[in-house]
What does this fold into?
Amino acid sequence: MFTEKERALKRLRPIAKESESSPMREMMKMMEERKGLLSLSAGEANFDPPEELIRLACEAMRNDRNRYTSTNGIPQVREAVAEFVNGRWGARVDPAANILMTVGGMEAIFLASRVLVEKGDRVLIPDPGWGVMRTVLERLGAAVAYYPLEEKDTWVINHEAILARVDERTKLVLVNSPSNPTGATLSRQGFQALIEAARDRGFFILSDEVYHNYVYAGDHASSLQCDGLDNVVFINSFSKTFAVTGWRLGYAIAHPWIIRQMGIFKESISLCSFSVGQWAMAQYLPGCDGYLKGAREFCRVNMERLVARLNAIPGVRCPFPSAGIYVFPDFSRIEPSSEKLFRRLLDGGVAVAPGAFFGLKGEGRARLMFACPTENIDECMDRIETTLRG
Ligand SMILES: Cc1ncc(COP(=O)(O)O)c(C=O)c1O
It folds into this structure.
């Protein structure tokens, strides 16, 4: 006998495959349940957000900034964002027309993909790359194909490898620079060449630059530094930059028509983005340079320490990432299956993100995050070393 509820449930068809669930969800559950487990698996900076930003957020809450904002975001935060991208990358954007504040970079990615991609469109994404992108695009019916990132002394995004795979059906190219999980970056010349090709051949670029602050060799090259941005949707977020992943606040910068379409769609999804965060960021953003520099230098020191310790383990190979907050070492000489590697490290008391989640090139690898207290890195590396040497 079915209860009334079960009878109704039988009429439903799944909208998501169980296999699409990100391993990060399982990991978070495991962290809650397993005492003593340490983690380098999180996809977020694990240090304090700026004290001043928190003060401004508290003040905003007390000053009754707790209500809906306009869908595109309060003018003050869009102006602050326009100044921020102008100051960093010389980008001239109209806060009223070119910017949409979103629920994290994630909503910006979803809305942009929804506007840019139709069923059957070919979309190029990086391998290795952030696994969530494949899910988002496949749910929209895209035919997803990979372009390879290149592992040399450090990981790089080669625009020629991308352009060699663009064909008539290609509608969208995803660039994630700095990349999750490799830290690979695309040069300014690479961006310019891609953007020119996009204009000439009629495709779009989704440029996910949420890790822009974490560049250790030179300055961050942004799509916003290039000419001809009509074919680009720039994605950014405050999540990783200011260690406020839970605020869910990000933004997209694009052509006014694309921003209008995204905004209208957003109305029926989230209505507006986190009001308190918008008010606080509007005031904080103009003076954020000191914090950003401190966060970057902290991560650089941790990264160097982590890479040195990994490379000291026989059979492990880990190039220095030139950017980002992760390393993506090759453990394949010790354990060719990323799933088995993940289980083995877990048994040794350390959670990492399994390499296979990041694409075909992820087998035999794992992603380790270094934007965390240095003691955590040391303790995790002691355990990893013991596990793998044993
Ligand atoms: C490459 C990349 N883009 C976008 C996001 C989304 O971040 P958020 O929605 O917190 O801004 C993430 C989160 O891990 C990411 O790794």
In short: The chain has two domains: 20-49+290-389, 51-287. Residues 43, 104-106, 130, 176, 180, 208, 210, 237, 239, 245, 250 surround pyridoxal-5'-phosphate (CB under 6 Å). The chain has 13 helices and 14 strands.
